[in-house]
Write a structure and sequence with these properties.
The protein has helices at residues 134-149, 156-176, 182-197, 204-211, 215-225, 230-248, 253-259, 265-276, 280-289, and strands at 2-8, 13-22, 36-43, 46-50, 53-57, 61-65, 71-72, 81-89, 95-98, 122-127, 129-131. By secondary structure, it is α+β, with helices and mostly antiparallel strands. The strands form three sheets. The protein has a five-stranded antiparallel sheet with strand order 2-8-3-6-11, with helices on one face. Helix 3 packs across helix 5 and helix 3 (182-197) runs parallel beside helix 6. The chain is elongated, with a radius of gyration of 25 Å. The two termini are 41 Å apart.
Amino acid sequence: MLCLEFAIPPLPQFVTVGHAVWPAGDRHFARTFGVYDLLLVTRGTLYMTEQDTEYAIGAGDLLVLEAGRPHTGHRPCVEDTEIYWVHFIHGSPPAQIRQEDIPWSSLLDKGTVEDLLPRPEQRMYIPKFAAVDTGVLEPILQSMNELHSRLNTENALQLHLLLCELLAALQAECARTSVPEPSVRLARAAAAYLDGHWRESFDLAVLEEELHFQADYISRCMKRHIGKTPLQYVLHLRLEEAKKLLSGTVLGLAEIAERVGIRDPNYLTRLFTAKLGITPGAYRRRLRREGEAPAGDFPSEAGQSADSPSDRK
């Protein structure tokens, strides 16, 4: 399956929605315009050409015509054809990506109190042309059409939320029908195991025994598909939890380190500073000044010396 990859935010914006039954002999007219035209056929067949590519959109098929690309009906419907359409706009052109190449497992940086804009590298995926589950999509489109027919200030927001629901369902179609390659399955299995054991002493030998693959191969698979080696993944989880504890509790650094599976508080400070460019104490003080963390502080963070033995393997 070929999918469209959109950078988000912002999310696509709703323009209009419609539903019709085209009798035999009707065909789509030729045009080029600046909106995306999402077509879902529930009965019959619609024949469309986008630039030089011809599509026969049968019952249960979906096609997304892209903004700025000429399209036309290259032949009339041969039977009554029922279609839904949704027009939306988006600020940047999408990339085309094969379904099997979508990096579903890649970790994304979370927003922090220092951010003034959303974090980059977020993506949304929808099928370009595919057979889809109309049992999921058609009720959403019916609700959109119903709201659109009686649009007012009170329900306008709901219409935009339904577009988001539709896009989420389409992205689920991309994920649902994909069959991940063995290296993807191994990377996900390793991440799932580490999700449940990241507070424990890190040891690649344990991961090897659990997954029955060599540590080097597990590390390569995780790096390729998730963007982090097993150790980097564990440290990421530990630092994320430390950030939560710094912002939501008055625990001291030693107790926070223990709770996130790091025996040496100085080592936690080293990791925290290397990743965020600020010590845990300075991070908490900044949050406190901005009113987002409870009072609490640490002793001096000088004298950092050794890595935690639990994280040297």
